[in-house]
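Bench notes, bay 3.
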Amino acid sequence: MPTNKKNKIFISWSGSVTNNFAMGLKKIIEETIFPDLNVECFVSNVDIASGTDWWTSISSELKCCRLGILCLSNENIYAPWIFYEAGGMASRDVPTIPLLVGCEVDSLEKSPLGGKQCVNFENQTEFIKMTADINHHFNDLLPSSIVKQIAEKGYDELNRDLSSVISTLKNIKPYFHSYSEKTHDAGTIIQNAKNDIFISTAVGNKFLGKYGDIIEEKLKNGIKVRYMLLDLDRFHEMEEYLHGSGKKGEDIHYSVLKKFKEWEKNILA
């Protein structure tokens, strides 16, 4: 049956594990909840044909979707790409549903999605309501009398088919975005920070003197700032560990903080 674009859902994700969840969600929505009803979910890595210009395809899908689902987890709650796609849908007045998988709504408090009504995947009742809202948005493709039953079936199938994926997302620690003062304007980075800040610098660096006022303002606004002073050799080791030779800022898993703690122990010893 040909696809009806007016019933298209854009499923946004970031991170390899969350991608597996997004693909599973696509399958359940298309094949279990709305089978043969012209509901199509777009998930970038499975729906962009080989050889197609990736950016053009993403932009095109953002324009024609009627609904968006953001698959949010500790793997991507600080990922800029999620917020870009959410902004793309918001700019076109496309209703967007943040679906939390293994993370808490408090994690979004200082993000661009802070304050937005979210759906907690662990709560079956919320998943059923999300299904009913999607159905209503698509002009009641399913009779309201069977929505709950079908949503429960889809929810059970998702938990069964993706049990290991969901378990991983529950246990994964969040990422943080790391920048080097060599390649970025530290003042601008701190000024624009919406989450807690970790600053590491070398003995003799006048970092606090240069950015003290901005840091103080962040503290007043409830942003936590952690500061670690390292000797020059240890600082260069950290710089290489995080960024290599002039590597750009990137998402880095919080497990790296274990190494920071090792350095702190050495400093205190």
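Next record in the batch:
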Amino acid sequence: MKTTALSLHFITGLLMLLSGFSSFAYDFKVGDLYYNILSMNDKTVEVTYDDFSFGVNMKLKEVIIPSEITYNTKTYSVVSIGKSAFRNCYQLSSVIIPNSITTIGENAFGQCPLDHVEIPNSVTSIEKFAFSNCVNLTDVSIGNSVESIGTGAFQRCKKLISVTLGNSVKSIGDDAFQSCESLISITIGNSLKSIGFAAFHECDKLASIYCLATTPTTANEYLFSESTYNEGILYVPSGCKSVYESTKPWYKFANIEEMDFSGVCELPEDADEPQITIENGTLRIEGIEGSEPVVIYSIRGYMVYNGAAEAIPPLSRGIYIVKVRKLTAKFAI
């Protein structure tokens, strides 16, 4: 009897243990991706990973995340990329994020060899370490709805060259872009309320900082490295140089220049203006004659093209300013 009782206790305990483990597992799998149900009422899910055989996702090379998924006759909206969903996927070089995603979770793509990321306008939050140590990442396009960028979100992305943070961004966490050693240009929108410790520290090649806010955000002096303060150029709105010169840590910049940002806009939608599109890395301008002159500058202010509209060559990935007729517009490739 004692043996039977012990066996029953052992089996019961084992079942409880296994039951506990299963609570951490994904809810279902479709194709190569795993999902957790966030809300049965709203029918929303997040992308996650397989707890029991962690590393299956490590075989992925390219991922297209769907905006919705059907499982057991129920259709769910994919609204989040969960914590560590693709972390340590050492072969993942390409990801397409749909316009249904609102949150990119902690460490979601940490240590992935992504070379380019387009974050859609639906995303409002990029959580801590989301893209940390993506050492092949050269270009990231951040959507116009992102409000917060978490601690270390792009830390040690050693090949990242240029970053534009739109007017929706209100907070940047500690070390957000720390040790991005190839970063040469950043643009910070006009809605920033807080910026964390060392957010751009050890970005020693950072040469051009464009701040669109007329009232600068106070931050710690370790925001940038000394080399950036001494050698970089801080561009501020016209008439705002004096307020930056009296505000911590911006007063540490040896070179502060005023710039008229009023003519730099997103791609125009006015039907009376020339229409700009990007096709396979090539700028197309409609509504003008092919022989009309076009001038294109890099975000650092270097002229990269001056000639006829019909002969614009393909451009490498980055952020540019184009001038045609009376229009000045900013675009990204």
